[in-house]
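Reminder to self: tokens first, then the designed residues, so the page reads top to bottom the way the pipeline ran.
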């Protein structure tokens, strides 16, 4: 059974609710999306379960789920697009580069839901 990972990666980059840090004017696109409001950021959102459910519960707040792998973000971004959840967006980015694209004053909360996926001492360099 072939994997559809590369198809998901190509598709997720075309979604209007996904921002890719590699694109030239990503900061401007994010600024337009935020429209002067503050945002709640989830680092390492994966398939974006928390981002989606929080966005459904708090319709007046804006949520951005950040993950470095676009194939993970695909399901959440597609779900939001199909169900018209407009207060949630996603960003393909490393957590270290967050301050380059989001102004510090625009972030009200940062969620790190699973902060230590590498418990072994030998994997210490992979931790957040």
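Designed residues (128 positions):
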């Amino acid at each position: 059974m072939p994997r559809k990972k590369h198809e998901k990666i190509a598709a997720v980059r075309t979604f209007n609710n996904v921002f890719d840090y590699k694109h030239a004017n990503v900061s401007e696109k994010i600024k337009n999306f935020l429209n002067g409001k503050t945002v709640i950021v989830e680092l390492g959102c994966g398939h974006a379960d928390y981002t989606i459910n929080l966005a459904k519960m708090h319709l007046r707040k804006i949520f951005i789920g950040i993950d470095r792998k676009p194939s993970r973000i695909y399901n959440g971004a597609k779900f939001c697009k199909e169900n018209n959840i407009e207060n949630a967006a996603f960003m393909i980015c490393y957590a270290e580069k967050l301050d380059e694209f989001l102004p510090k004053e625009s972030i009200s909360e940062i969620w790190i839901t699973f902060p230590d996926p590498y418990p072994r001492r030998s994997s210490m360099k992979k931790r957040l």
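The mean pLDDT is 86.
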